Amino acid sequence: MFGKKGSGGSGGSFGGPARTAEPAPEKLDWSEPESEASAAANEKPAREPQSGEVPLPKPPEAMSTAARASSARYSAPGPDKPRAKTQRNDVYYDTKMQVFSALIETIDLSQLAKLDSESAREEIRDIVNDIIAIKNFAMSISEQEELLDDICNDVLGYGPLEPLLARDDIADIMINGAEHAFIEVNGKVVDADIRFRDNQQLLNICQRIVSQVGRRVDESSPICDARLPDGSRVNVIAPPLAIDGTALTIRKFKKDKLTLDQLVNFGSISPEGATLLQIIGRVRCNVVISGGTGSGKTTLLNCLTRYIDGDERIITCEDSAELQLQQPHVVRLETRPPNLEGEGEITMRDLVRNCLRMRPERIIVGEVRGPEVFDLLQAMNTGHDGSMGTIHANTPRECLSRMESMIAMGGFTLPQKTVREIIVGSVDIIVQAARLRDGSRRITHVTEVIGMEGDVIITQDLMVYDMEGEDASGRIIGKHRSTGVGRPAMWDRARYYNEEQRLAAALDSMEVAGS
Fold first, then answer.
1. Gene3D superfamilies of this UniProt entry (predicted)?
2. What is the mean pLDDT of residues 303-315?
């Protein structure tokens, strides 16, 4: 990640060859254009050129970098309170490049690596302040603080990503090469107003992220899934597959774990529907959560797991660990990609099959994508009631078809009717989630799988979401309603767990509320 000064290692990728000090421009335009009167008032005479090169400050003997240790961890942008964000322009990034290049030429990264994160940050700030003074850059205190934070993040953290990772209102971060970054806020995708120095810096940061979980991304292995220490999901696709520079996507993991009550407040589900989901989790129904990309499947899965008893042994299988179960008896498993020789891969199917030897009471698969669905269905059908998983599909009926297709992908030569019988015998409930066109997320169906008629799987909806239009601001208006099923197929299971009265009350009140 970092190398010694002049070693030609990765340290050189942070800014290229150092620049000698040059006369500063008369005034740096940091954000919006100034009026002529304001510009005249703030104008300063240019500094007289110095003969020869201006020496940059030398670091103290004891200086060093928490780079390798501390840069591998995500840290917040620093102890300072966040400042109001200003629109940045080319002048800001040019100034940052000059200061950063001078810093890399001056600092000894091998020594900086020996300091803890806070000491390293202070050391960098001191040197950058000296560089700004020597180069005579004209900037306000707030502008200088912003620049200091950015450069500290470049050296010790995830560079321009740091302020985005620190924000709780961002759901997704999407980087399309060094100069194009977008974020999803409140269901809408907007420009992130950040920029990387070049594609090499972006790739370096991606390598820093994935190395924390023992993975790599480079030309020989250009696609990688990983996670941040807080559980945020990361996907990287690098050149030559990404033509315009490395593409980085981060699905942020909220620090505050959502509950069904909060989903009710957001309008994602009605109070009666939330009670229905609580009962489904409590009575150990086998549940598949279906939905498109970004529809909230993993969030909903986390919510449902809150209603699992604390004395149950739960085993989770994921590509990138992001589930956060609160029960004490949880084993978390994660897949592993092959090494450089193409060996050592551990697939999701390997994990699910191994789970069956670990005496699980519930198996939870973060996302079912392939033949492992067969092993999960077998587990659901052989005494591991209450198992759960998510799948990409747009409707409950499509979810069933996707499971059939995934089993066929595994090379199983089973008759179609047999496959459908396995699905019917394994899955009790399909919960359908959707991201609507206004950016809101709704639970649109709670559907029971009740049996077969001939070769056709029979389902019945317990709850659906009806869209009724949109308001003046473009927000979709709708409501959740019961379909009028008085005695669902899960009734006997609910009675076994003494939940039949709550179930009946939830269905009745949902029917009244939806009428």
1. 3.30.450.380, P-loop containing nucleotide triphosphate hydrolases
2. 91
Residue 71 main-chain phi, psi, to 5 deg: -75, -20
Give the span between the Cα atoms of 410 and 175, in whole angstroms. 34
| Positions of E strands within 421-503 | 429-435, 441-453, 456-470, 476-482
pLDDT at 313 over 60: yes
Q: Say if residue 427's pLDDT is above 90.
A: yes
Rounded CA separation 492/385 (Å): 14
Q: Which of 496, 493, 497, 432 is nearest to 461 (CA)?
A: 432
Tell me: the pLDDT tens digits for 286-302?
999 999 988 989 889 98
Residue 365, classified by CB atoms within 10 Å of its CB into exposed (0-12), middle (13-18) or buried (19+), is buried
Tokens 């509950």 map to which residue?
A: 259
Q: What is the DSSP string of 427-445?
A: --EEEEEEE-TTS-EEEEE
Cβ 260 vs Cβ 274: under 8 Å:
yes
Using the structure block, give the residue that is written with the tokens 């600092």.
Answer: 107
CA 106/CA 406 separation, integer angstroms: 56
Cα–Cα distance measured from residue 269 to residue 271, given in angstroms and rounded to the nearest whole number:
7
Element at 25 (helix H, strand E): none
Contact status, residue 435 vs residue 295, Cβ threshold 8 Å: yes
Report the distance separating Cα 222 and Cα 239, nearest Å: 7
Distance CA 5, CA 112 (A): 11
Give the DSSP H or E segment for 294: none
Least confident of 11-25, 182-196, 233-247: 11-25
The C-alpha torsion from 159 through 163 and 168 to 170, rounded to 10°, is -70
pLDDT given for residue 402 in this prediction: 94
Closest residue by Cα to residue 46 from 138, 134, 129? 138
C-alpha span between 336 and 351 (Å, rounded): 10
In whole angstroms, give the CA distance from residue 219 to residue 230: 27
Largest CA distance in the chain: 92
Full-model pTM: 0.68
